[in-house]
Amino acid sequence: MGQSQTLWVGIGCQRGVSSQLINIAVDRTLQKYQLAYQDILGITTIDTKTSESGLWEFCHQHNLPLKTFTAEVLSTVTVPNPAKIVKKKWEHQV
Questions:
Q1: How far apart are alpha carbons 28 and 22 in whole angstroms?
Q2: Does 74 or 67 have the greater pLDDT score?
Q3: Which residues touch 87 (CB under 8 Å, ≥6 apart)?
Q4: Is residue 66 within 8 Å of 34, Cβ to Cβ?
Q5: What is the mean pLDDT of the chain?
Q6: Which residues contact 48 (CB under 8 A, 6 or more apart)?
Q7: Sign of dihedral through CA atoms 29, 31, 36, 37?
Q8: Which of 29, 53, 65, 94 sits 20 to 30 Å CA-CA off 13?
Q9: What element of type H or E holds 7?
Q10: Mean pLDDT computed over 62-78
Q11: Looking at residue 21, what is its pLDDT?
Q12: What is the pTM of this model?
């Protein structure tokens, strides 16, 4: 019996990032934690990244959904490597 998909991967990126660079980063992270693409349920990011073609291409290549969240929502999620932009955007909204 195979593992079920339970992992959502949060991706923060600079404007204009390529799908190839995202692929390298995800590959390295999966290797580091001994995970596989089959474990990934989907990709998440901040809503201001919805126009990033590299993210969309990566998701399309791996047949993964892309879910976006506001800075407010993301500021409540505990992650090992939080993006400074989320905190900055959230502080400006409050």
A1: 10
A2: 67
A3: 75
A4: no
A5: 83
A6: 71, 89
A7: positive
A8: 94
A9: strand 7-10
A10: 87
A11: 95
A12: 0.76
What digits encode the pLDDT tens for the residues 19-33? 999 999 999 999 998
Residue given tokens 């992270």 in the structure block: 29
For the domain made up of 7-93, give the CATH fold: Nucleotidyltransferase; domain 5 (3.30.420)
Which tokens sit at 38? 């089959």
The encoded tokens of residue 47 equal 């809503």
Query: Which of the two residues, 57 and 6, has the higher pLDDT score?
Result: 57
- Residue the block writes with tokens 């409540």: 76
Q: For the residues of 26-90, what is the DSSP string, one character each?
A: HHHHHHHTT--GGGEEEEEEEGGGTT-HHHHHHHHHTT--EEEE-HHHHTTS--SS--HHHHHHH
